[in-house]
Amino acid sequence: MLNSVKLLFSIPLFLHTLIQIVKNFVVKSINTCTFPCQLNTVAQLDIALLKNVGIKGVILDLDNTIVSEDDRYISPGAEAWIKQAKFQDLKFFILSNGKRECRAKAWSNRLDIPIINPARKPFPFAFHKALKSMQLEPQKVVVIGDSRHTDILGAWFVGCPSIQVATLPHPFRWWEKLFGKRVQIPYPSGHELWDNNF
Predict the structure, then answer these.
(1) How far is 34 from 93, CA to CA, in rounded Å?
(2) Single pTM value for the model
(3) What are phi and psi of 118, to 5 degrees?
(4) What DSSP element (H or E) covers 148?
(5) Residue 178 has pLDDT above 70, yes or no
(6) Which one of 76, 114, 121, 172 is most buried, counting C-beta atoms within 10 A?
């Protein structure tokens, strides 16, 4: 009984320590990049800037980065930005931890981007598969997602630069309520938000 109580109290401590590692090491390492490490939306990212620093590929998160987890909202301008980036020869891959495989495949088809779902981020296996599929070195691929503990940490594990975007409004899970701003950037109040009609 005493051991299970100790374990119960050690899990939040472990997660807190992991978050601190991400904040202290990952965020510092991405600050050396010549593009922003945080944005409100994907569409705010200057494609020419990415190309100028040698980026040739993008690994995207799906849930709460491109479309909200409950399918209510889509990131403003994201689809047009992806089309424009493809037109400028950037390669794309989606890594999603989402639980609904059919939904992930539907978005993969709509955006015409290959996907791995479930990707089990931040573990590096899916990141390595995406890099191999794109035939690009990690430093030539930027990872874009809304969560420090999955997207940003996973990018750091494989040596990719990363950009964290604000998480689209969605019903928060218990760990998001518990850790809040430590793992995600809240979507700015009053910022443009598009309804998802897909």
Answers:
(1) 22
(2) 0.78
(3) -80, 140
(4) none
(5) no
(6) 121
